[in-house]
Amino acid sequence: MTGIRVAVVQDGAVRAVDPEQPVFSAFDLGPTRGDGVFESLLVQGGVVHKQLAHLDRLDRSARLMDLPGPSREQWEELLRVLTEDGADGDAVLKLLLTRGVDGQSAFSAVGTRAPLPAEIGRQRRDGIRVLTLTLGLPADLRGGAPWLLGGVKYLSYAVNMAAQRHARANGADDAVFVSLDGQVLEGPTSTVVWAGDGVLRTPPTATGILPGTTQQLLFRAAAERGWRTETGPATVAGLHAADGVWLVSSVRGAAEVTALDGVRRRTDPGLTARIAALTGIG
Ligand code: PLP
């Protein structure tokens, strides 16, 4: 399998392993409970994009779940091992940290590299149709309920994947979660960004959404070039009224929303190209 690599941190050492070999025990709390955290990183031209931001967020997610793990140096070494063959094609890296096997190991740490899926190029180029779906929680609930793991990139993404399947089964490409009280939250694997009246906006992380590294980079780069940026609540009606709406994430970059809940949106390829350039992805 070309472009595929797997590496582990085991007994304090980082090593590449045969990608065909299992790296988790059948009793590991990662696969059995979804008890762990992860990061997805983009490699472009052989260079890992936003490495520092991803390792910072991995540390934060692990801390919020009382999860021990490798040192920063070991994670950096793992990323080096995954990319050391110098392959310059675009790729996706995943870092996985689980709670290991009860009573046997404090954690399991694994990294993978795989080629960038072709679908990503299509989404960057043609945009995406989005369906809004309720998450069934008030927007202010997760801020005061740490056990719900708001803002933590934990492994249990079954609901997020089910939301994407539901969207696809209903004529869309992806979903956006909305709170019980009608606030726009985030995509199952992306941050929502919209533009209106010359301001670039995104929902507040106080709603329990994941702090997006792509959105943060985009807003910093945009502000440096004189754009106004704001964090604030939005409704689905607000997204319909916006000049442009994008789902942004590390692997996808920026994908313009071309239809929302079956209603076609006017699109602005020039603006999307500027947003994409600001993310440095694509
Ligand atoms: N929100 C969720 C739930 C995600 O899973 C992701 C990406 O994986 C994002 C937002 C976007 O985060 P980032 O830009 O750091 O990839």
Quick summary of this structure?
The chain has helices spanning 29-33, 51-64, 72-83, 118-126, 158-169, 213-224, 236-241, 269-279, and strands spanning 5-10, 13-17, 36-44, 47-48, 91-98, 108-115, 128-134, 174-178, 191-196, 199-202, 228-231, 244-249, 253-260, 263-264. It is built from 8 helices and 14 strands.
Fold and architecture overview:
The protein is an alpha+beta fold. It is built from 8 helices and 14 strands. It has helices at residues 29-33, 51-64, 72-83, 118-126, 158-169, 213-224, 236-241, 269-279, and strands at 5-10, 13-17, 36-44, 47-48, 91-98, 108-115, 128-134, 174-178, 191-196, 199-202, 228-231, 244-249, 253-260, 263-264. Strands 7, 8, 9, 10, 11, 12, 13 and 14 form an 8-stranded mixed sheet that branches. The chain has a 6-stranded antiparallel sheet with strand order 2-1-6-5-3-4. A hairpin with a 2-residue loop joins strand 13 and strand 14. The model has no long low-confidence stretch (mean pLDDT 96). Pyridoxal-5'-phosphate binds next to helix 6 and strand 12. Pyridoxal-5'-phosphate (PLP) binds at residues 40, 186, 189-191, 210, 212-215, 248-250.
